[in-house]
Amino acid sequence: MLNASYEPLNVCSVRRAHVLVYKGKAEVLEALEQPLRTSTDTYPWPHVIRLVTYVHVPRAAQRKISRRALFARDNWRCVYCGTAGGRLTLDHVVPRSRGGDSVWENVVTSCAPCNLRKGNRLLEEVPMVLHAMPRPPAPVLFIRLATPTIPTGWRPYLEHFSPSSSNSTSTSTAAA
User: Fold this and answer.
1) What is the spatial distance between Cα 43 and Cα 142, in angstroms, rounded to a whole number?
2) Which residues contact 101 (CB under 8 A, 6 or more apart)?
3) Which helix (H) or strand (E) holds 92?
4) Contact 157, 48 (CB under 8 A)
């Protein structure tokens, strides 16, 4: 589902997308070839819809941290050494015992050896460097996590809002 400004908002069910289109609150930008059929009518199967009126999305309200979202934000790599293999863990840049919070800006993905080496210390106390500063993820990350693969029809609407479109293609029954 896209905002009136074409900004990705979320992934919704086909039923929700159809109801929004039927009530005139959204328009179909991309439809699948297979139609939606009722006992009396045939409708386009919404694949990408856009809201007719702009919906203000409060940016101050951040999503809760989850392991999966953190790993995806850090591209499934250790932020200290860059390795993608092995067992990934979560690490607090400023340890919780030293007043660090569990917020997006303080929690990073780390491999087990780097996490063990850093331990309960600050980065200044250990010869380790963050390859990228932790930050809250872009909203499009949650769309990518909501569907296992990004359908080809969604890509033109998502590529302007995220640096990578590395997921494979498929046909999905949910509407973007």
Assistant:
1) 29
2) none
3) strand 88-92
4) yes
Q: How far apart are the first and last CA of the chain?
A: 4
If you count them, how many residues does the chain have?
176
Distance CA 118, CA 110 (A): 10
The verdict on pTM exceeding 0.70 is: no
Check residue 162 and give its pLDDT: 61
Mean pLDDT within 95-112? 93
CATH fold for the domain made of 67-125: DNA Binding (I), subunit A (1.10.30)
Q: What angle (nearest 5°) sits at the alpha carbon of residue 43, between those of residues 38 and 48? A: 130
DSSP helix/strand/coil, 111:
strand
| Whether the Cβ atoms of residue 154 and residue 135 lie closer than 8 Å to each other | no
Mean pLDDT of 11-30: 94
The tens digit of pLDDT for each residue in 123-165 reads 999 989 998 889 988 777 777 777 778 788 888 887 777 654 3
- The pLDDT, as a whole number, for residue 172 is 38
Cα–chain-centroid distance for residue 71? 11
pLDDT for the residue 34: 93
* Residue boundaries of the structural domains of the chain: 1-61+138-176, 67-125
Whether residue 128 contacts residue 81, with contact meaning beta carbons closer than 8 Å, is answered with no
